[in-house]
Amino acid sequence: MSDTALIVIDMLNSYDHEDAELLLPSVHKVLPHLTSLIARARRSEAEVIYVNDNFGLWRSHHDELLDTVLSGPHADLVEPLRPDENSLFVVKARHSIFYQTPLEYLLRQHGVDTIVLCGQVTEQCVLYSALDAHIRHIGVTVVEDACAHIHRDLAEAALRMMERNMQARIVRSTAEEIF
To answer: Which of 36, 38, 95, 119 has its Cα between 20 and 30 A from that of 172?
Structure first.
């Protein structure tokens, strides 16, 4: 069992929200890096954990969320990232993957002490999740070319903040040692 887990943030998405039009070009750009990263994590037997908004559907579970987004107009952005039978899934309601979720407990139960963050949005959910991991003494790696952004300048600033203030490793998806 690896002590590192890949966290895929908010990629099961209908893109029916404010800022979606600004986000979509970045999602298209990072999609090949994301799919490659997920495949690499699976080959290395690292845990792959999807942490996703539930879009206010409090009765929903991951299959229902997946069915909803796969029946929408942006299914082509979700299908390549589809969770497999070994993927874990955590529903979140706010920006951070840790805020009022069982993720920290799940990571501890699986012996994970380092997380690799990818998904969306760099300057929001990825940034807040990195901060929350840092204060929990969980190591953070951010795969910059596998993170989509709304505003490039804010994403670049967020990456610098994560590296400087949270001691996050910032890497590209082709980096040798991620898992």
So the answer is: 95
133 dihedral zone (left: phi>0; alpha: psi -120 to 50; beta): alpha
User: What Å distances lie between residue 143 and 64, 65, 120, 148, CA to CA?
Assistant: 28, 25, 11, 10
In this predicted model, what pLDDT tens digit does every residue of 135-174 receive, in sequence order?
Answer: 999 999 999 999 999 999 999 999 999 999 999 999 999 9
- Helix/strand/coil for 50: strand
In the block, tokens 């805020």 appear at 99
pTM of this structure? 0.94
Nearest-CA neighbor of 51 among 4, 83, 85, 25?
Answer: 83
What is the 8-class DSSP label of residue 40? H
Q: Which residues of 28-50 are buried (b: 16+ CB within 10 A; e: fewer)?
A: eebbebbbebbebbbeeebbbbb
116-134 tens-digit pLDDT: 999 999 999 999 999 999 9
Amino acid in position 124: Q
Distance CA 10, CA 150 (A): 14
